[in-house]
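fwd from M.: "can u put these together and see what the complex looks like"

so here's what she sent:
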Amino acid sequence: SQQGEEDPQALSIQEGENATMNCSYKTSINNLQWYRQNSGRGLVHLILIRSNEREKHSGRLRVTLDTSKKSSSLLITASRAADTASYFCATHHRYSGAGSYQLTFGKGTKLSVIP
Amino acid sequence: GAGVSQSPRYKVAKRGQDVALRCDPISGHVSLFWYQQALGQGPEFLTYFQNEAQLDKSGLPSDRFFAERPEGSVSTLKIQRTQQEDSAVYLCASSSTGAWVFGPGTRLTVL
C-alpha cells in the first residue's frame, strides 16, 4: 500500500513560474525523499530531508518537512520545460515486522511546464 | 558499472508464460529492492535483499512471484504463469549507506 499522497495529482505551469507539490504521509519516518521520473524512465533521486530537519535546498529545489503535520512540500523555482516529469515523495521508515527499512512512495504529481 | 541496469527493458508475454527479469545493482551495494509500478501509479514495494538474504518479501502479490539473489549481487525476479494484471514496470534499486539508485525498469506487458 502507498503511504504518501501527493497533491495536486497534476500541475501545469508556464516556464519561469514556480511549482509547488505537497506530500502527506501517515506513519513516523526516518527521512523523506523526493524523486523525479521522466516518461518511460527510471526514478531519479532529487533530495532527502531527515526527520529532524525542517528545510533543505538543492539548486532550484526547496523541500520543507513538518513532522507534526506529517507533510512535506517540494518547490521548484524558475521552472523549465525540462522539469516536465512526474514527482514522487517517498518516506523512509522501518517495518518492525521484517526489521528492514524501505521506501514507500506516493502516487505522484505530474508536472507539465509549458515553454 | 556506474548505475543499476535492468534487462530486458521491455518484455511482452502471453498470458500463462513465465518471465524472468534481471537486475544488476551497483557493485558493492548491500541492499537491493524490487518495486512494481502500475501505469499512473507510484512504485509499490515487492521485496528486499541484504546481500543474498531475502529479508522482506511481504510485497510480493502472489506465490507466482519469486525473487532471488544467490551470490549477493545480481538479482532475478521471476513471475510464473503471468496474468494481465502483472503488466507494469518493474523497478530495481540498490543502496549502500547513501541514496537509493534506481534502474531504468523493465516494462512488462502481458497479452
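replying to her w this: The interface with chain B takes residues 1-2, 4, 33, 35, 40-45, 48, 88, 95, 97-100, 102-108 of chain A (CB under 8 Å).
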